[in-house]
Design goal:
The complex is a heterotrimer of chains A (268), B (275) and C (309). Chain A has a 10-stranded mixed β-sheet, with helices on both faces. Chain A is 34% helix and 23% strand. The radius of gyration of chain B is 22 Å and the shape is globular. The chains are: A alpha/beta (268), B mainly alpha (275), C mainly alpha (309).
């Protein structure tokens, strides 16, 4: 579905060059939910921008559904961390969800059905005529998720979508992601710096090192489905997995000296 | 031009006690009455009253003028010229603003030319406009277009630059074609800036039209009417009545455009109330 | 500080291309790569500088060729009227100060600057009072809104009656017309100051006059200067208007006389002079602003620098 081979990305050149991605390879199978976790400042946002085709990497290759990614590929959707800026304030909730559907030429009824259905899926029926600025942060992020669902993408990229949302709402939204994934049978790449979140949501966790970023390892998450915020997190396997990921992030690998986390140039 | 904000519009940060709308109205009325009394007093006891007639007389004349068909024809001529010039300036200003805002090199290349053209006051071009267009309405329209162009152009430019990059990117991620991004992301997001520019330019357009009529001795219009009235020297009360109508016209146009903005850009207001 | 739809006046008033000084990089020493980066940037700045002026020169050239071709009586070639402008106003061997410079340009500028100065002082004082006290604002708002909507040329008869026909009347007309943008911007600027700053000062018992000079004026300074910039453009217009009626000298008088006497070169020379004066005055104001608002740039540096380019 999505293949990343030997991806590298360097900002600038010469003495001021900053290598954000040193060597990234992983793949995502159809219907899988893969979370990508790493210390803050490890180039997660760069990685997602490259995956989505918004940014061209300086080296390596990304292919999506068998075709190399050059520019933004079709059938891809993204939920950004900054919901307030990625939604369109001049459009209503329904308008925002309908927005990317226009160029698909779906026909009025089909578009209407998708909008209504995806808004219902995120629990926002009855809010369709309000403006994003009239909603709380959590509800705005639900709109962004609905927008992605209505588009029915081949793969959904989520860039730390819940990083600026309070803990209680965050748990609700995590469960929402699991629910819609079940229902739409969707392939999801979920980038986060939250270890609990990465393990709780995923089928597989890709652990990144600090910059220059490489893939430390990939861990399978054989936790039973459906997951539950309390019961799943009480399981011994969950505790063991989150411990393993945490140790990997704290000590990236034995042969590399720990990198200062804040030396990064600010794209995460 | 300045941000033409009404002073009574509640700012985000209140200093002093919060006041009710009724109190604001009452105090505004008191202010107007005091100003009128002051002007009346100056006219009655200060200066020669043939040169500066009392406010009561001027206001009575203003009332009579507002129902006088011959006078209203002149006002219509002024409005037509102002609106035509404003329309041309809006189309040109938005087009140029989008172009300069989207292509940095065009903006860079044109900057010095713009810096030299912009400070040339439109009134200084009245002589040229008379030579080229005569004293008819084309002259007025040309001057208005020139003067009204700048605020619209710069507001559009500023608006395009203020478009949220993430808003563009989210459209691109969903595969929205580039031209559609311009039409459905850049334009709506810039629209409030354009509207503010048009409102500022509308005030300028009216002032420039009346000025051009006054200074160039145009065939018709509010300005030429004032000029005709003042040439005899006996009709000073009419001159002031005409001036007051010009001021009222400006107020009405500004109010209408502001109300239109409030309706059209409700989303913008909602956004501001949030922050 | 998002104040919509006020539309940040600085940016549209300054226009796109005021020569922006290259950002200073105090952190970078004289190491090789840093230096080469700096020369590269200097090269780019020089390049774009040349490009801007080349475009102006190119347009003038096109005009020149078109004018030579068409020989329209109303549109003389730029070289001719620029030469005439030089003759009229540039210092020459016989006179350091030409007649027209002494009789038209300098008095015009003096009146304009006097009017602008008067407007700035009055409008800032009034604006601070209104900005700090909403009730005062309520009383004067309708009157201000109306007075601002009056077309200044229509006020000339009134000003002639009230203040006579000489310089005083012109200075007051300019002051009257230019005070509105400064007044409105001062009010906006004062009202946009974070109330927490006032509260902090009051808690520490800072007296009113210190609060005015240390909190209110600096806080509103950016907006005030933006207002002055707008007022400057308006001042030029009013300067010309006031000299088109009942005047015996000044740039506006010069232009009108030239047009009436069909001295087309003189007329265009006057218009070009206004363009140059406007450009120079704007530049001067930018320098003043740069000095006065240095603290503002420093305060905003971390957030504005990466987003700037």
């Amino acid at each position: 579905m999505l293949d990343v081979r030997g991806l590298t990305h360097t900002y600038g050149s010469g003495a001021t060059a900053h290598t954000a991605l040193a060597d990234i390879s992983f793949s995502v199978a159809e219907g899988e939910l893969v979370s990508v976790v790493g210390p803050s400042g490890c180039g997660k946002t760069t990685l997602l921008r490259v995956l989505s085709g918004l940014q061209r990497p300086t080296g390596g290759e990304v292919s999506f559904q068998g075709r190399p990614v050059n520019g933004v590929p079709e059938g891809l959707a993204m939920v950004f961390q900054d919901y307030a800026r990625s939604l369109y304030p001049w459009q209503t909730v329904a308008g925002n969800v309908r927005f990317p559907l226009r160029h698909l030429r779906l026909g009025r009824e089909e578009a209407h059905r998708r909008v209504a259905e995806s808004l219902a899926a995120v629990g926002l029926e009855g809010h369709s005529d309000r403006y994003p600025s009239q909603l709380s942060g959590g509800m705005q992020q639900r709109v962004a998720i609905a927008r992605a669902l209505a588009y029915q993408p081949g793969v959904l990229l989520m860039d730390e979508p819940f990083a600026s949302i309070d803990a209680q709402t965050r748990e609700d939204l995590e469960d929402l992601v699991l629910k819609v994934r079940e229902r739409y049978d969707m392939t999801i790449v979920f980038v986060t710096h939250d270890i609990d979140e990465s393990v709780y949501l995923a089928d597989r966790v890709v652990v990144l090192s600090g910059p220059p970023t490489t893939v430390v390892t990939t861990i399978d998450v054989p936790l039973p489905q459906p997951r539950d915020q309390i019961e799943t997190k009480e399981l011994r396997e969950f505790v063991a997995l989150r411990g393993e990921v945490a140790r990997l992030i704290r000590r990236p690998s034995s042969d590399r000296a720990p990198e200062p986390l804040h030396s990064h140039s600010g794209n995460d | 031009m300045p941000p033409l904000n009404s002073l009574t519009r509640r700012g985000r940060l209140d200093h002093g006690p919060r006041t009710s709308i009724l109190g604001t109205l009452r105090r505004g009325l008191v202010g107007v009455v005091v100003a009128l009394c002051l002007a009346e007093a100056v006219a009655r006891w200060g200066v020669d009253s043939s040169a500066l007639p009392p406010v009561s007389v001027v206001l009575a004349n203003t009332g009579r003028l507002l129902v006088d068909p011959a006078f209203l024809t002149e006002v219509a001529a002024t409005l037509t010229a102002a609106v035509t010039g404003l329309g041309i300036a809006a189309v040109a200003g938005v087009g140029l603003g989008l172009l300069l805002g989207s292509l940095r090199w065009v903006e860079r290349a044109s900057s010095v030319v713009v810096e030299f053209l912009r400070p040339i006051p439109s009134v200084a071009l009245i002589p040229v406009a008379i030579l080229v267009f005569g004293q008819g309405s084309e002259m007025k329209v040309a001057l208005v277009t020139y003067a009204a162009l700048w605020p619209i152009l710069f507001n559009t430019l500023y608006g395009v630059r203020a478009v949220e990059p993430l808003a563009r990117e989210s459209a691109r991620v969903f595969g929205v074609p580039r031209l559609a991004v311009l039409a459905r992301v850049v334009l709506p997001s810039t629209a409030p800036f354009v509207a503010a520019g048009v409102r500022i330019s509308a005030a300028i357009a009216l002032i420039v039209t009346v000025s051009a009529e006054l200074l160039a001795g145009a065939a018709e219009g509010l300005g030429s009417w004032i000029l005709r009235m003042s040439s005899g020297g006996a009709n000073t009360d009419m001159v002031y009545a005409g001036t007051i109508v010009a001021g009222l016209l400006g107020l009405v146009v500004n109010g209408l455009l502001r109300a239109g903005e409030q309706r059209l850009f409700r989303w913008k207001r909602l956004m501001e109330e949030q922050t | 500080m998002k104040t919509f739809p006020t539309v940040e006046p600085t940016s549209h008033a300054r226009g796109p291309g005021m020569v922006r000084p290259a950002p200073a990089n105090p952190g970078q020493g004289a190491q090789g790569p840093a230096r080469s980066g700096r020369t590269a940037r200097a090269g780019r700045t020089l390049g774009s500088f040349l490009l801007r002026w080349a475009v102006l020169a190119g347009l003038l050239l096109v005009w020149e060729l078109a004018a030579l071709n068409a020989r329209s009586p109303f549109f003389p070639p730029p070289t001719e009227f620029l030469a005439r402008a030089g003759e009229l106003w540039l210092p020459s061997a016989e006179a350091w100060l030409t007649d027209s410079m002494r009789d038209d340009v300098l008095p015009s500028l003096a009146r304009m600057l006097a009017g602008l100065a008067l407007a700035t002082v009055t409008a800032v004082a009034l604006g601070v009072a209104i900005g700090l006290n909403r009730r005062i604002g309520d009383y004067v708002d309708p009157v201000i809104q109306f007075a601002r909507a009056l077309p200044p040329p229509a006020l000339i008869p009134l000003f002639l009656v009230l203040f006579g026909r000489d310089d005083l009347m012109r200075v007051l007309l300019i002051a009257f017309g230019t005070s509105w943008p400064i007044l409105i911007n001062t009010i906006e600027g004062v009202r946009s100051i974070d109330p927490l700053k006032h509260a902090t000062a009051r808690v520490f018992g800072v007296p009113l006059h210190t609060r005015l000079t240390r909190i209110v004026l600096p806080g509103a300074s950016q907006k005030i200067l933006a207002g002055v910039r707008t007022a400057l453009a308006l001042g030029l217009i009013l300067m010309v208007i006031s000299e088109m009626v009942a005047a015996t000298g000044g740039i506006g008088y010069h232009i009108v006389q030239a047009q009436r006497g069909f001295q087309i070169l003189d007329m265009w020379a006057g218009i070009a002079l206004l363009g140059v004066l406007g450009y120079l005055l704007n530049l001067a104001l930018t320098l003043v602003e740069h000095r006065l608002l240095a603290w503002h740039r420093i305060a905003n540096r971390p957030s504005s620098e990466p987003a700037g380019q």
